[in-house]
Write a structure and sequence with these properties.
35% helix; alpha+beta; 89 residues
Length: 89
């Protein structure tokens, strides 16, 4: 199991488009993934679950990935956050 602390970097937070990118990215991996914020843990492969976090810019999140390809999945999510969901320049 891999756990990482992340912060929502993009100006609009985890809105529908950013959430869809995250879920689509994670759907390529077999590992399970969860996000925790504001005391709520959700399935990171569920658009509705991630949207329920209502995570705006600067919100701290905990990513937990577990499974056979957990390292690759975690690296891909971290890269997406580092790229600010390809939204901000």
């Amino acid at each position: 199991m891999i756990e990482r602390e992340l912060t929502v970097p993009n100006r609009l937070g985890l809105h529908a488009r950013a959430t869809a990118k995250l879920v689509q990215l994670l759907s390529a991996f077999r590992s399970s993934a969860t996000l925790t914020a504001k005391g709520r843990e959700v399935n990171a492969k569920s658009i509705m679950g991630v949207m329920l976090l209502a995570a705006g810019q600067g919100t701290p999140l905990k990513l937990r990935v577990e499974g056979e390809d957990e390292a690759s999945a975690a690296e891909a999510v971290i890269a997406l956050f580092d790229r600010r969901f390809d939204e901000d320049s």
